């Protein structure tokens, strides 16, 4: 059973106002009067003596007043709770954060190999508010800790090293480091910094106005960040970094509000291209906005939902993002990533060497595939995407579009196979609806495709083994233009050219190479064109069951 520290000196009872008592013990403590009647400038020795004399299970409670403290050494099993404010005395020698020395010699609370205690306090600090090395079973709760906002190379608010079973809850950590001044560089100072830790829960905290990241995690495992409010930090809201031995796994980043940070909302970046980290991460229910800006200027980073690099086994689900300067979701060199039911006013961007990527029921301003993309399977299912950018030369073994609502031109010039099924595509691009320049096999079926400024569907002679079946295709000019694709099959489609130009045909084939036309219905303009289907050059065509009709007067077909 936890018991409160018995204070045997009267001046401690009067000046520090500790809550005393020993549970069920009957023996009474003896009080001794002292001449000390004023609060000195340095309370470190007195509070430290209480920690040192306490036994495991004791809780030291400090009354509501201001305490001036240098650095306090924690003791296993001894908790410290204060209603007052701890003001750290400025160290005699200046210290700066460096990559070689990421911790202070003068934290407010320091614990090495401590276990089984809790901390509750309000503080202003120059070093960390809490620094723990090789600690376990620690709770940091109901804390307010403000750092030095004038410091260029600040230490963190909370720094944990090789620690486990840590709970950080309902803490406010702010002003550790100078505010970021430029979009081109940043200062040091992080709200919570973890290195080589495991089983850490970070819940319902407010982490804001720190020089660098809100939360930084390096070489950590089994981490939960839930319902935190992370804002106005000089780099990413949450950043996950990686060591060399592959400790990182099992991350749950859920229901956080992440906004006005100068870089990404969530940045999980494994720079080692020789391996993909099986992170087993869930990124769900987060809301972000206004990330990636410094005083209205764009920084080089700023993903709205997440930047994911060199990872596999990731679920990105039910997140929302607005007004970020970089892609909402950025994927590079990943595998087994599912992006489901997210809503963002910016692009998703996929680049590098990918395994299997699945985008399902998302709303994005666009999808951008970069020219160096190599992927085993990229599936887009039931998404609302307002613009697609598919460059020449990508290599995708299987590119699958199922039941999406799409806008703009789809340009396919790739090595691999395309499945385009049950989509709605509308294009106002001068390049038309779908341009198949190069593909090793394609099936387009059950789609509604419309283009109002150019041809709805163009098939180049390097597009091999293409089947266009049971689509509704409408264009202000030509519905399908075939440039001599080998063994192109056009079957059971409804093709409507609503042009008033009688010389324009609904389907045009140049030098057809074993072209099959079977059971298609052609709708022409209000005045019947001279011919619905036009052949140019030489070639072979197989025709069966074709039907020509006019539009009705209202333009429906």
From TrEMBL:
Residues 118-269, 410-541 form the Right handed beta helix domain. The keyword GTP-binding does not apply. Pathway: Protein modification; protein ubiquitination. SUPFAM superfamilies: Pectin lyase-like. Pfam families: Beta_helix (PF13229). Keywords: Repeat, Ubl conjugation pathway. PANTHER family: F-BOX ONLY PROTEIN (PTHR22990), F-BOX ONLY PROTEIN 10 (PTHR22990:SF15). This is Right-handed parallel beta-helix repeat-containing protein.
């Amino acid at each position: 059973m936890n018991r409160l520290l018995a204070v045997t000196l009267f001046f401690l009872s009067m000046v520090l106002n500790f809550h005393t008592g020993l549970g069920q013990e009957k023996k009474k403590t003896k009080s001794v009067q002292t001449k000390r009647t004023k609060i000195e400038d340095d309370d470190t020795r007195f509070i430290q003596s209480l920690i040192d004399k306490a036994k495991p299970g004791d809780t030291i409670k400090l009354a509501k007043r201001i305490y001036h403290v240098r650095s306090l050494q924690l003791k296993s099993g001894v908790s410290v709770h204060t209603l007052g404010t701890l003001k750290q005395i400025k160290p005699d020698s200046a210290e700066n954060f460096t990559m070689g020395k990421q911790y202070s010699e003068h934290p407010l609370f320091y614990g090495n190999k401590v276990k089984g205690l809790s901390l509750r306090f309000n503080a202003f600090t120059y070093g960390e508010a809490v620094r723990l090395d090789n600690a376990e079973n620690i709770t940091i709760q109901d804390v307010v800790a403000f750092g030095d906002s004038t410091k260029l190379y600040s230490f963190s608010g909370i720094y944990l090293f090789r620690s486990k079973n840590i709970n950080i809850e309902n803490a406010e950590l702010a002003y550790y480091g100078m505010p970021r001044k430029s979009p081109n560089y940043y200062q040091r100072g992080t709200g919570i910094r973890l290195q080589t830790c495991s089983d850490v829960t970070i819940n319902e905290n407010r982490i804001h106005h720190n020089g660098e990241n809100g939360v930084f995690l390096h070489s950590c495992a089994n981490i939960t960040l839930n319902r935190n409010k992370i804002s106005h930090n000089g780099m990413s809201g949450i950043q996950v970094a990686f060591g060399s031995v592959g400790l990182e796994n099992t991350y749950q980043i859920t229901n956080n509000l992440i906004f006005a940070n100068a870089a990404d909302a969530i940045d999980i970046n494994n720079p080692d291209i020789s391996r993909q980290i099986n992170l087993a991460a869930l990124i769900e229910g987060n809301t972000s906005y206004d990330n990636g800006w410094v005083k209205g200027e764009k920084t080089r980073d700023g993903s709205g939902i997440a930047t994911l690099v060199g990872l596999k086994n990731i679920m990105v689900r039910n997140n929302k993002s607005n007004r970020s300067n970089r892609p909402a979701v950025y994927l590079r060199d990943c595998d087994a990533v599912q992006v489901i039911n997210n809503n963002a006013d910016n692009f998703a961007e996929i680049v590098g060497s990918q395994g299997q990527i699945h985008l399902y029921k998302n709303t994005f301003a666009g999808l951008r595939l970069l020219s160096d993309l190599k992927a085993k399977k990229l599936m887009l299912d039931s998404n609302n995407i307002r613009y697609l950018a598919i460059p020449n030369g990508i290599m995708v073994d299987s590119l699958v579009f199922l039941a999406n609502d799409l806008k703009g031109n789809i340009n396919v010039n790739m090595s691999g196979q395309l499945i385009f099924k049950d989509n709605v595509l509308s294009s106002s691009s001068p390049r038309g609806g779908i341009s198949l320049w190069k593909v090793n096999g394609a099936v387009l079926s059950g789609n509604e495709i419309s283009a109002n400024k150019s041809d709805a569907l163009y098939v180049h002679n390097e597009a091999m083994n293409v089947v266009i079946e049971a689509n509704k295709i409408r264009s202000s000019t030509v519905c399908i233009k075939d440039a001599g694709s080998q063994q192109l099959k056009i079957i059971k489609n409804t093709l409507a050219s609503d042009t008033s130009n009688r010389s324009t045909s609904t389907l045009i084939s140049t030098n057809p190479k074993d072209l099959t036309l079977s059971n298609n219905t052609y709708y022409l303009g209000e005045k019947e064109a001279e011919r619905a289907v036009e052949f140019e050059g030489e070639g072979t065509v197989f025709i069966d069951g074709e039907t020509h009709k006019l539009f009705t007067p209202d333009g429906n077909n």
